[in-house]
Amino acid sequence: MTSQYAEHPAMFRNNPLGFILAVILIPAAIGILILLFWYLKCKSTRLEINDNEVILEQGLLSKERTELNVSGIRTVKIKQSFFNRLFGVGTVSIFTAGDSPEIQAHGMPKPEVFRELVKARQTSSA
Q: Which of 9, 17, 30, 33 is the most buried (most CB within 10 A)?
């Protein structure tokens, strides 16, 4: 398969009002700190799907990496508010067994593309 998904959470599209508020607070210097913290938090999280694995990597200095085999995924749940749908972002939850998600990533761009890639890889590996 040539299609890949490797994305970081979106800043503005995930929370446009918070972004605008942080920009307004830049003259007070707290806005810069908020934007810097937010940027680092977004860039330290990455959701990726390759040939047969889904990988969630989190952390800047110390890393936490969760890998799931596509064939073991039971459900991919996408949660989007109205504004999330307008801006094309959402929360992706991946379930393998049980009632709690193995992977949960907030503010991910193009979540429906991610779900379709998982489905395509499940049918091609079966």
A: 9
Strands 53-58 and 64-69: antiparallel
- The partner residues of 89 in beta bridges, in order of sequence, read 109
Helices (H), 4-92: 16-24, 30-43, 82-87
DSSP assigned state of 26: G
Per-residue pLDDT tens digits for 39-89: 999 999 999 999 889 999 999 999 999 999 999 999 999 999 999 999 999
- CA R_g for the chain: 16
Provide CB contacts within 8 A for 62, sequence distance 6+. none
CA–CA distance, 6 with 49 (Å, rounded to integer): 7
16-24 and 30-43 helices cross at what angle (nearest 10)?
A: 140
Going 50 to 101 to 39 to 89, the CA torsion angle's sign is positive
Its pTM stands at 0.87
